[in-house]
Write a structure and sequence with these properties.
The complex is a heterodimer of chains A (704) and B (164). Chain A has 704 residues and is mainly α. In chain A, 40% of the residues lie in helices and 4% in strands. Chain A has 30 helices and eight strands. In chain A, a hairpin with a 2-residue loop joins strand 5 and strand 6. In chain B, 45% of the residues lie in helices and 7% in strands. Chain B is built from five helices and two strands. In chain B, a hairpin with a 2-residue loop joins strand 1 and strand 2. The longest helix of chain B has 27 residues. Chain B starts with a helix and ends in an 18-residue tail after the last helix. The chains are: A mainly alpha (704), B mainly alpha (164). Chains A and B meet through helix 8 and helix 19 of A and helix 2 of B.
């Protein structure tokens, strides 16, 4: 090769070498530059600048290191690098709203961030170091950060029991139960109750085919004059348990036809004493008297009525039983009387108590229901429905099974269905790829899926069998939260050990008390050893709290001196022997282990002690702010006019020492009385008695 | 120059969109006392205005509606209020004119130790053994956020700063 050619080659080689070196340097530089420009480094530099702009720079930067930070909790498999960018999470001085994100302190919660990390509650990808990877759905990580409004779902993943701090979760869990979701779906921690929807074996004896047609078409039966207000869709009112199924007219005709033929074991119509009917029938104020009895018996504690005042229609009353505004146009007269006398003969698992009726009361109330709680136009807008043809009945019977009706409703001779819908026990931990979005346009995240599914099931899957619920926006959020909280079995044994199980208390007394307990359904409103309703006072410690004679007298004539209460104990017309059986059992068995009846004896109280107690009550502690004695005082706490006949001295002593230890969450403040003061106050309270004959004699409705 | 014009146009468009969206939202926002409300509270003087609550304020609201509402509000979950029964009348929880000048320390003392300990009415019982310190802080935070006129926290030192 000639020399000049050699020179050319060398020159070209040099050029190639120079260019490749440059490329090499650039390639080498990419990594440090990318690192320098990475999200987390930018945020850390931002944090340093922010810290320097504040007067407490030194403290803010004392334990700051310009590197990736992580919280590592091996037993929970938590490696969270969130604190790399969220520098202020554990610094209390950055709690102020003026501190820019992502540096603000976490609001105070019962769990320390250092002990729990972030993703245990917030979800997202804890290992990620870029904003997008950490917060959003990526190919490698399908659980994005949980929207803050559903954050209580994470509490529910471990806390299967109720929590004060999570009202939205508790509401959602309650809705899952009251809406009978468990009829079709398997849910975490929920058992099938004995009765979901009513038993329809004899539905043909209760309502007409027209009414069934209307109810199936849309269970929200009541509308205001302008057609806008639906009774069960009222703000604060729960959904009717019966959801709206999308049924065609033909299907409605068939199912209503089938159901209207069901009368296998009809209840015997009750024969009123003809003398009473003849006597009462003559009275012009028959219906008004019925209404008075209806109010006196406090039917409204469980049932609500729509009342229109000043142009606004509202439901007034409780939600334990169905609303009754137009029930007179719904049920058959013979059925109504038989039902009221003995609800369990028609529905064995009904929550309705079996009252002790006099013929007179029963007649008055049935007359009131049939003439006042009616709507003549209720069934007017329906097609003509005659006696059902056999094809209708056959088709109706088939549809009853196909639509999943027997998941909730029992008909004798029709086999019940369970798990008609998908298993939801681990819905909250499902990834988007495990869910069927079909061709819907919703975002591909588990949260969006649940929201869409309970808002409009057919929007996700056109052929969905799930019925349509119309939930208030707050209830939608609550329900979504509760569904997201059902994450199935915990990922690790360490997490499983942290789970706080739900309380499944049972209280099934035997003997004479047990029978009365079932008859009057005490547990629907009252709570016994953690079992039962929460509408009325917890009676777990009633035997320690109340004197036996008082309990018996109260059961016979329950009344309250609290004018503000709308929900009161109904008049069951309990006979003497039943009342004494109930009082005997309550005072013998329902005792608090911490209240020693022998520790306080009202015989040792002297008038001087009572006088001192009166002084303390009125001047030093001003108990009259909340309690009424005589005609003056507040009505936050119970009325104390008859407290000497009501409360036992031992209970009063224990209560004054620490009320929350006896009734958790009671609003009576826990104060620091000396023993002498407690004795004096108790001595004073025990002097407060009203004679039974006095018209104002009574007792507080709720012993909170 | 052209860029500036474009930016201004874009901004105008954005604000227009934002306000129109906002109007749509206010229609839907009705107070929902039972369900949606744990993290928001309607303004007591103007029911259409909804005050959003953070975690601490929401806990404060829970404590307030269990223990305090009976005497520090004119309507209660049970209906009428005990407030008018009391002399002197307890301040309403949103009474900014009365509560805003009081420091957090003072309010904390009154709640914890009772009215008598702070030279106020003995009708206000001490809650220090009933409520936890966190509960009490939460209630104060709730009072502050619903205050009308609005509560201004004591000025903090240091310049304003914003990220990006």
């Amino acid at each position: 090769m000639p020399a000049e050619d050699m020179g050319k080659v060398t020159k070209r080689l040099r050029l190639i070498f120079a260019v490749s070196s440059l490329v090499f340097v650039i390639v080498l530089a990419i990594s440090p530059v990318r690192d320098y420009l990475s999200d987390w480094r930018q945020y850390e530099r931002e944090y340093v600048r922010f810290a320097e702009s504040r007067p407490d720079t030194k403290r803010l930067l004392a334990d700051f290191h310009p590197e990736i930070e992580q919280i590592w909790i091996p037993q929970m498999q938590v490696v969270d690098r969130c604190t790399t960018c969220h520098q202020g999470i554990t610094r209390p001085s950055l709690a102020d709203a003026s501190v820019p994100q992502p540096f603000r302190t976490h609001p105070p919660i019962p769990h320390r961030v250092r002990d729990w990390g972030c993703v245990v509650c917030h979800r997202g990808q804890g290992l990620a170091t870029s904003v997008r990877d950490a917060h959003e759905t990526t190919l490698a990580w399908e659980q994005p950060v949980l929207p803050v409004k559903y954050i209580q779902a994470s509490c529910g993943a471990c806390h299967h029991a109720e929590l004060d701090q999570t009202p939205r979760l508790d509401r959602g869990r309650k809705l899952l139960l009251t809406l009978n979701c468990v009829g079709c779906h398997h849910l975490q921690g929920a058992e099938r109750p004995q009765m979901l929807g009513p038993d329809l074996t004899n539905i043909g004896t209760k309502v007409s085919r027209e009414w069934i047609y209307k109810w199936l078409k849309d269970p929200r039966t009541l509308t205001a004059d302008d057609g806008t207000v639906t009774v069960n869709g009222y703000l604060n009112q729960p959904e009717p348990r019966m959801p709206k199924f999308r049924l065609s007219d033909k299907e409605l005709v068939a199912i209503s036809g089938y159901l209207s033929t069901l009368a296998a074991e009809p209840v015997q119509p009750y024969k009123f004493d003809p003398r009473i009917v003849a006597e009462l029938g003559k009275r012009p104020d028959l219906v008004d008297q019925g209404e008075t009895r209806f109010r006196q018996m406090f039917c409204t504690t469980c049932h609500s009525l729509a009342v229109t005042r000043a142009g606004e229609t509202k439901l007034i009353g409780g939600d334990i039983g169905p609303e009754l505004t137009k029930v007179g146009s719904k049920v058959n007269a013979d059925w109504l009387a038989a039902w009221l006398r003995n609800p369990q003969s028609y529905l064995p698992h009904s929550k309705m108590p079996r009252y002790q009726w006099s013929d007179q009361d029963l007649y008055l109330i049935t007359q009131y229901v049939q003439s006042k709680l009616t709507d003549s136009s209720l069934l007017s807008d329906l097609p003509k429905l005659n006696a059902p043809s056999s094809e209708d009945v056959q088709l109706g019977k088939r549809l009853f099974a196909e639509k999943g009706c027997s998941s909730c409703h029992v008909i004798k001779g029709v086999s019940p269905q369970t798990d008609f819908g998908p298993d939801l026990a681990s819905l909250g931990s499902k990834n988007a790829s495990q869910l069927e979005f079909g061709k819907s346009k919703i975002a591909r995240t588990p949260v969006a899926y649940i929201e869409a599914k309970i808002t409009d099931p057919t929007g996700v899957n056109v052929a969905a069998r799930m019925p349509q619920y119309s939930l208030a926006p707050g209830d939608l959020d609550a329900l979504t939260t509760a569904l997201l909280s059902m994450t199935g079995k915990s990922a690790t044994a360490g997490l499983e050990a942290l789970t706080i199980p739900a309380d499944h208390a049972q209280f099934r007394p035997a003997g004479a008390f047990g029978q009365l307990f079932e008859r009057y359904k005490c547990y629907v409103c009252h709570r016994f050893n953690g079992y039962g309703g929460t509408l009325a006072p917890d009676l777990t410690n009633e035997g320690s709290r109340a004197q036996k004679q008082w309990i018996a007298a109260f059961l016979k004539n329950p009344q309250t001196l609290r004018p503000t209460l709308t929900f009161r104990m109904p008049q069951f017309n309990i006979p003497d022997e039943d009342a004494s059986t109930l009082a005997e059992y309550l005072s013998m068995v329902m005792q608090s282990p911490t209240v020693d009846q022998a520790a306080a004896d009202s015989k040792t109280y002297t008038p001087e002690m009572a006088n001192l107690g009166k002084q303390l009550y009125e001047v030093k502690y001003q108990c009259q702010s909340c309690h009424t004695i005589g005609s003056g005082g507040g009505y936050v706490g119970p009325n104390l006019n008859n407290v000497g006949n009501w409360i036992t001295p031992a209970w009063a002593m224990a209560w004054l020492k620490n009320p929350q230890s006896l009734v958790p969450g009671t609003i009576e403040p826990h104060r620091e009385f000396t023993d002498e003061e407690r004795t004096a106050l108790t001595a004073y309270l025990m002097t407060l008695k009203q004679s039974a004959s006095s018209p104002a004699a009574g007792a507080p409705g709720r012993g909170r | 120059m052209k860029a500036k014009l474009l930016v201004t146009l874009a901004l105008l468009l954005a604000t227009g969109l934002a306000t129109s969206c906002h109007q749509n939202h206010t229609v839907a926002a009705t107070p929902d006392p039972l369900t949606g409300a744990y993290d928001s509270e309607p303004d007591w003087n103007d029911g259409t205005k909804i005050i959003p609550l953070n975690y601490q304020q929401a806990q404060g609201k829970r404590v307030f509606y269990q223990y305090c509402v009976w005497c520090h509000a004119d309507s209660t979950p049970a209906g009428p209020s005990n407030r008018s029964n009391l002399t002197p009348n307890p301040p309403l929880a949103n009474d900014g004119a009365t509560l805003n000048p009081l420091s957090d320390d003072f309010v904390r003392n009154v709640i914890t130790l009772g009215g008598a300990a702070a030279g106020k009415s003995a009708s206000m019982p001490p809650w220090g053994k009933t409520l936890s310190p966190d509960d009490i802080e939460a209630v104060i935070a709730f009072y502050r956020v619903i205050a009308s006129p609005a509560y201004q926290p004591p000025a903090r030192p240091g310049p304003q700063y914003s990220v990006r």
